[in-house]
């Protein structure tokens, strides 16, 4: 007994299972990483920072998170893996101590017209069950309340393959909640006939205004002119009712034109098949512009935009239908759900309340469940994805976030920080890629990558505590406490753009004068109505003179790169062709000059079914993408593959002087350098760029446009503290060149640098939508009458 007590007093040796407290990465070489080796503490909050393009995403997402997901996928059977995305093993020597990774990134939610906030978060599914149990009148199962489910009725004979086969009469019926008119989209498309033809002209005079439809020789036009249904020499406005019906809506019928049998079809169905059934993003720019002009979307008159059938709208709990519930702001819906008390659905009400409360807690209480998912900003989409993880009972999981503070007002960043700390305190490892000093400040561990971007980055410059980073001599450490000061003098406006009675989304009849010829910043808490005011009103007020750079993603395949996207490749190809006396098409990897073995891709892709596909460099062109004969042609001593391997900064120098001097190419490269993309290589696939890099690439492309008003939506997205200064210089140059710049922004450095600030609020959703301040930054700081004013005053140290 005595010896047993003595043994109890001795400290127990740590269990071997408790020794795995680190995620070890050794020899990471993904993208621009240069044999990176680090150790990340588990159950802590680690922030990865560094200039844009330094390798943060390559380390966190493409190495650690990707390998975790790949290993989890490998635990499934080969049959199941065949249905899952295939992932290649990252370029890394050792990855040790990994746990299950949950990735919460900035990818926009699918822009499918039937995808809403409710369908993306399961809140709609719970509401449908609720109404199917408590709704009066009862109209059917949960599918009867779903705008994605159409009603189906069928009857007929079926043969039962059992014993003596015999035919049995059977009926099948399914009640769906989809509105028949708009098919669950809430909007119906209408074609603007004035964009298709000039009704004062006849067909023989060239009435059609559709791109590519010439009246003299084009077969499509001749079918209408010689069909016999209409008089080709009579102006369209003088057609009889029958002629106009046949012209616009005629059924397909064979007609003889010039001795050839062709199909005549009414103009509207013809346009719908030729243009509207195709992916708009894949169209040529002038065709896309025509479609955007010709097709107008209006609220469905039958369901009034609710997407639901009359039966689904008629069923109510109390006085509220499911359409009313989905149209409420989520914080109001949460209050309504609290008023319901029915023991038969108690577990459902509890789960629904928890989900709706998570929305409010995360700062998205101003959204409604019927908000289309494609209209959410990157930051809102990321926070919506967080909802399902907040109440999760999982621990010892790795959560990976990509700039969770994007789109957040300084007032909201504290709330996001609290959520990250809550996830950590439940025993999870939280990895955050971030630039904002407010989030870097709460980190337990910081990894700073750099020192530069692209080939100049990819190494770990610092690893340790926030205090150590602040004291260290890295780019991030030096800029961590940067504070922009208020300008002593501000520019005077050269005019104003009047916005009157703006009521888009939550705007409450806003009247405001946006000053022109200055740097104007529009700010306010998330959901206060900034984008609704600017994107909804400025283009209409300024006509076609507006260049709008929003956060919509760039679509591009692995064949697309900065050179093709910006149009830079055109002058480069022409310069090569002129210098060598050959065709420009030879210098395109997507055209005649492509290596025939890999078709200009540079790699050979081998599909291995459920296993990760293998990409091996093409042996014939050695990954250069061009035929050997094309690489013999040179410009300034370089072949086309060497030029595409140059960084923007190097190419800017190359095309600026000497034999390779090409002013058209140099202008585009200047703009790319201006937006802080000097480190990108010209041939780098667009699929490898971050969200912030893509937005700045889009900005560089639009800087060559002739617009007088530039509207920028959070251009600091993805920018390191050191790069914000360069962006401010770019905005100043645009204004000094006579442009008007309107910036929707939360970054205090941009606010402090503005000539004029328009602050919306005071809150989000129906608590916002009003102008709470107009004036100079200095006046905003002096007043401190708004949340923005308080945070800006604290930022500038006033």
SSE-based structural type: alpha/beta
Poorly predicted ranges: none
Q: First CA to last CA: what distance?
A: 71 Å
Q: Note the beta-strand portion.
A: 15-25%
Q: Name the shape in a single word.
A: globular
Q: Give the total of beta strands.
A: 27
Concise description?
With 798 residues, this protein is of the alpha/beta class. Helices cover 33% and strands 19% of the residues. A hairpin with a 7-residue loop joins β18 and β19.
Structural commentary:
The chain has 798 residues and is α/β, with parallel strands linked by helices. The protein is built from 29 helices and 27 strands. The strands form nine sheets. The protein has a six-stranded mixed beta sheet with strand order 5-14-15-3-16-17, with helices on both faces. Strands 21-24-25-20-26-27 form a six-stranded mixed beta sheet, with helices on both faces. The protein has a three-stranded antiparallel beta sheet with strand order 2-1-4, covered by helices on one side. Helix 5 runs antiparallel to helix 13, helix 12 packs antiparallel against helix 13 (346-361) and helix 24 packs across helix 25 (691-702). The N and C termini lie far apart (71 Å). The mean pLDDT is 87.
């Amino acid at each position: 007994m005595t010896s047993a007590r003595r043994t109890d007093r001795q400290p127990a040796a740590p269990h071997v299972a408790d020794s795995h407290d680190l995620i070890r990465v050794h020899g990471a070489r993904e993208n621009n990483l240069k044999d990176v080796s680090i150790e990340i503490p588990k159950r802590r909050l680690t922030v990865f920072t560094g200039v844009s393009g330094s390798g943060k995403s390559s380390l966190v997402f493409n190495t650690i998170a990707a390998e975790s997901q790949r290993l989890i996928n490998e635990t499934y059977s080969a049959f199941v893996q065949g249905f899952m995305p295939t992932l290649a093993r990252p370029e890394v020597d050792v990855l040790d101590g990994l746990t299950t990774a949950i990735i919460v990134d900035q990818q926009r939610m699918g822009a499918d017209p039937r995808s809403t906030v409710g369908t993306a978060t399961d809140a709609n599914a719970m509401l449908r069950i609720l109404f199917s149990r408590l709704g009066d009148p009862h109209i059917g199962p949960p599918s009867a309340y779903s705008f994605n489910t159409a009603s189906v009725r069928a009857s007929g004979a079926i043969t039962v393959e059992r014993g003596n086969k015999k035919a049995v009469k059977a009926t099948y019926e399914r009640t769906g909640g989809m509105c028949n008119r708009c098919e669950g989209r809430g909007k119906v498309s209408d074609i603007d006939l004035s964009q298709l033809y000039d009704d004062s002209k006849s067909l023989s005079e060239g009435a059609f205004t559709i791109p590519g439809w010439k009246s003299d020789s084009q077969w499509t036009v001749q079918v209408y002119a010689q069909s016999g249904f209409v008089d080709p020499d009579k102006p369209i406005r003088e057609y009889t009712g029958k002629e106009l019906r046949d012209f616009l809506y005629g059924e397909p019928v064979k007609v003889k034109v010039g001795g050839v049998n062709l199909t005549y079809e009414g103009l509207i169905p013809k346009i719908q098949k030729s243009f509207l059934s195709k992916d708009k993003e894949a169209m040529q720019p002038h065709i896309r512009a025509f479609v955007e002009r010709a097709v107008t979307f209006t609220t469905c008159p039958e369901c009034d935009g609710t997407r639901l059938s009359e039966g689904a709208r008629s069923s109510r709990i109390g006085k509220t239908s499911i359409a009313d519930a989905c149209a409420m702001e989520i914080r109001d819906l949460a209050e309504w759900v609290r008023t319901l008390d029915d023991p038969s659905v108690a577990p459902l009400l509890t789960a629904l309340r928890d989900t709706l409360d998570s929305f409010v807690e995360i700062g998205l209480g101003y959204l409604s469940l019927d908000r289309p998912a494609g209209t959410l900003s990157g930051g809102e989409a990321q926070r919506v994805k967080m909802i399902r993880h907040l109440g999760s009972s999982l621990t010892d999981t790795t959560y990976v976030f990509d700039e969770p503070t994007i789109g957040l007002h300084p007032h909201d960043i504290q709330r996001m920080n609290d959520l990250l700390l809550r996830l950590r305190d439940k025993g999870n490892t939280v990895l955050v890629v971030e630039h904002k000093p407010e989030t870097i400040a709460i980190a337990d561990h910081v990894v700073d990558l750099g020192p530069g971007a692209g080939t100049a980055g990819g190494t770990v410059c610092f690893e340790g505590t926030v205090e150590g980073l602040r004291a260290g001599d890295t780019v991030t450490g030096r800029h961590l406490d940067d504070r922009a000061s208020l300008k002593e003098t501000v520019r005077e406006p050269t005019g104003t753009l009047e916005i009157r009675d703006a009521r888009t989304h939550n705007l409450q009849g806003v009247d405001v004068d946006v000053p022109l010829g200055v740097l104007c910043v529009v700010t306010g808490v998330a959901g206060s109505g900034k984008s609704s005011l600017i994107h909804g009103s400025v283009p209409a007020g300024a006509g076609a003179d507006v260049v709008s750079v929003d956060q919509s993603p760039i679509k591009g395949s692995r064949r697309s790169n900065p050179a093709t996207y910006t149009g830079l490749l055109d002058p480069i190809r022409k310069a090569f062709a002129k210098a060598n006396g050959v065709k420009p098409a030879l210098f395109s990897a997507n055209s005649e000059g492509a290596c025939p073995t890999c078709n200009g891709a540079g790699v050979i892709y081998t599909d291995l079914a459920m296993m990760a596909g293998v990409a091996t460099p093409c042996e014939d062109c050695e990954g250069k993408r061009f035929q050997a004969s094309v690489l013999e042609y040179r410009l300034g001593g370089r072949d086309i593959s060497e030029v595409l391997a140059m960084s923007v900064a190097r190419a800017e120098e190359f095309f600026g002087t000497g034999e390779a001097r090409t002013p058209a190419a140099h202008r585009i490269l200047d703009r790319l350098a201006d937006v802080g993309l000097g480190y990108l290589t010209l041939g780098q696939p667009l699929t490898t760029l971050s969200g912030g890099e893509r937005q700045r690439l889009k900005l560089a492309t639009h800087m060559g446009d002739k617009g007088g008003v530039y509207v920028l939506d959070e251009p600091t997205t993805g920018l390191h503290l050191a790069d914000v200064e360069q962006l401010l210089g770019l905005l100043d140059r645009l204004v000094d060149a006579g442009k008007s710049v309107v910036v929707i922004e939360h970054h205090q450095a941009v606010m402090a640098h503005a000539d004029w600030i328009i602050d919306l609020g005071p809150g989000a959703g129906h608590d916002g939508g009003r102008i709470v301040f107009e004036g100079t930054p200095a006046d905003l700081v002096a007043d401190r009458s708004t949340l923005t004013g308080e945070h800006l005053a604290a930022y500038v140290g006033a």
